[in-house]
Amino acid sequence: MSKKASTTIPEKQKKASRFSILQRDIVISAVLSICGIVAAFYWIQNIEEPRALTQRMNTVTANSADHQRVIIREAIAQLSARLKQQADNPELSKILRTSDLAARSVFEQSLERAFPEAIDAKVIIIGPQGIADERSETARLRNNIEIDMLRKSLGEGGIVIEAYSHKNAWFISFVTKVDKHGALVITFSAQYFEQMLKSLAGNAVTNELIQTYKTRRDTVIRPANTDYAEAMQSRVLSVPGWTLQVYPQPQTVQNLRSDGTLLWLVCMFCVATIAASHAIFFVRGFGIARPASAPPKKAVLDKAETDILDLEQALAKKLAANRSRTPSHRDNFPAPDSSPPLPELQQGARTRRGPLAINCFRAYDIRGVADTELNNETCEAIGRAVASEALSRGQSKLLLGRDGRLSSPRIHEALVKGVLGSGVDVIDLGLLATPMLHYACQYFNIGNAIMITGSHNPGHYNGMKISLEFQSLSGQDIQNLRKRIEDQDFEQGQGSLTNDSIEQRYIDRICGDVVIAQTLKVVIDAGNGATAHVAPALFEELGCEVIPLFCETDGNFPNHAPDPTIFENLAALRTAVADNHADIGIAFDGDGDRVAVVTARGKCPKADQLMMVLAQDMVVRNPGAEILFDIKCSRLLPELIIEHGGRPTMWKCGHSYMKRKMAETGALLGGEFSGHIFFKERWYGFDDGMYTAARLLEILTLSGRTMDDALSNQGALLSSPEIIIPVDEDRKFAIVETFAENQDFAEATLSEIDGLRVDFRHGWGLIRASNTGPAITLRFEADSEAALSRIQNDFKDLLARIDPKLADSL
């Protein structure tokens, strides 16, 4: 017995010694592995990633600098060409030869109209002895620098361009000789070019304009910041001595940074895995090598196994008890098909005030026949419901506007009665366009508004677009208003009514933001809608020569329906553009939140083609920007966005849905095929036809292109118009759902965010239920006539199986 013990104890000691060495090796291995992983991740995070970030910063800044250099060169060339055109005017030569001061004054006034962006325009008469002659009028020049520029222009010919400081402000003058008798001097504030550069740069970069003369170096335009001077890109401009220096903005650098969170999570996971795995081996070694006095391993394991078994048995009993109770719980819920059919729901949708037109409460607004569905009682009830909902959210003030429809004053009166009767104060802004009301929300910092408008619908329709807390109501929010009316869930009180105007503030805000680099002749077709008075004034203040068309508000819409997306409604605008040799024609819908364009050659691009022009400019200036578009848009649009470094996102149709999605994603630009276009960059994210048109003209004039030029650079696919098939209101969604459930399109990508869009290799088709009327809508696009016909026939065959009458309309 003692001999056995004496031989066993040394063996255990040797075994323990071996496992001690093993445990030491395990610890060393763990430490070395963890240190290696941490070192690798540290190198990636602090060495490799900064190097890659610098490379990305340099690339983005260089691209932006190249783009801006081209645009500035074109802008300067255009200003120079306009100045040369004025200098070649025979009338000016006559004025200079005769030294007719009265005629000169008249000509200078015409120069100011030709250069509305300039701070002054002068005609300088040169005497026989040149500028030193007493008739040289050098006193009319601003300082010695302008006098020197005049000397250079007389001696060298051509156009002399220089920047200079005068009374603590920077100016830029263009001087050119006219024959031998005089010169033209056009002077701009440097702020004009600064605003131009800011418009080009967007949020991506900031600019510095430097003028070098001999050894002197002056900063004409200062950058917003130079935090990332190491990534600065310098470009020599076409004006001698001018250099553009471009610095990335902090926001751009932040967007270009890789998110290190995932990287360090992976690092921590690897460290934890290594530590855990080594710990297991370490513990096993400790268990094998533990002293004899330790409790037997089997006993410990037996106890653990017993505990686990007891826990499993307890859980099994609990699950069995739950299963035995499930039928009684399930019986408390109705079967999926037990909800009442739509006709019964309509019969029950009545209030103590009388029947309520359920179909008026649509997906993103309230809209219906004005004299029947939107009678006085209904409109007063809607006012009470909106006001009560506002009060429940802690809001006590509401802005109110209306379009020019004949029924709008009556609806306005009923709404005011309902809102005031619930205790909410009303600021009445009168007749205005819908985007002006949205701007008023921002200006007054009141996020609650009702716009009385039928939008693009015929004159006997009307409706309301409602916002609460700066959010356009849609979907369930609008149905909740209907339920309030049915339940008579209204607050009581007495609000106050005041009147105000936003028109000039709106015009001033856009004119302070948009730069139009040359005078354009523009035909404005207001379609007798709500933009009739404001749009011509806006574009005149932006420096355009405006030819108004149907710019008298008339709720009968006597000239054409207030929907500019229909080709036939643009016939008069196309004629006016051609007859007046205009640069572009712009049309707005009844309430001004949609826009359409006619080019100088008479083309009528669709809204997704306009979006391609706007999106290209946006993503070039804001690399990585997200651009939102609806499901009806061409597949060329997302391809262009990706090609120029942006991120395309397709979303459902509807201005309310689009505005919410823009706020959610931070997208800088959004657009719908119906003509609603939303700017978040430099604007507020709502759809605004007038602001969109102004930004479009800015892009065209800064790049020196016409709208026809911009369209010629786009690809071309064959597409159908939007096909509208009338169906009963209570059937339209069921038809689209049935279509989606029974489709068997092979090798296609399906999107069901709004109806069903089927993308094939050579084209796509879309079917969806209209949110604005009793109809389903379809649209098709393809690479060829054969592909377009094949996709349409596939849709038609499936529709025929659902309802043959629907297929006959396709």
UniProtKB/TrEMBL annotation:
Gene3D superfamilies: Alpha-D-Glucose-1,6-Bisphosphate, subunit A, domain 3, Alpha-D-phosphohexomutase, C-terminal domain. Keywords: Isomerase, Magnesium, Membrane, Metal-binding, Phosphoprotein, Transmembrane, Transmembrane helix. One of its GO terms (molecular function) is phosphomannomutase activity. PROSITE patterns: PGM_PMM (PS00710). This is phosphomannomutase. Residues 320-349 are annotated as: Disordered. It catalyses: alpha-D-mannose 1-phosphate = D-mannose 6-phosphate. Residues 361-490, 505-602, 607-711 form the Alpha-D-phosphohexomutase alpha/beta/alpha domain. Signal peptide: none annotated. Residues 725-797 form the Alpha-D-phosphohexomutase C-terminal domain. Its EC number is 5.4.2.8. The chain crosses the membrane at residues 21-44, 262-283. GO terms for biological process: carbohydrate metabolic process. Pathway: Nucleotide-sugar biosynthesis; GDP-alpha-D-mannose biosynthesis; alpha-D-mannose 1-phosphate from D-fructose 6-phosphate: step 2/2. Its cofactor is Mg(2+). Belongs to the phosphohexose mutase family.
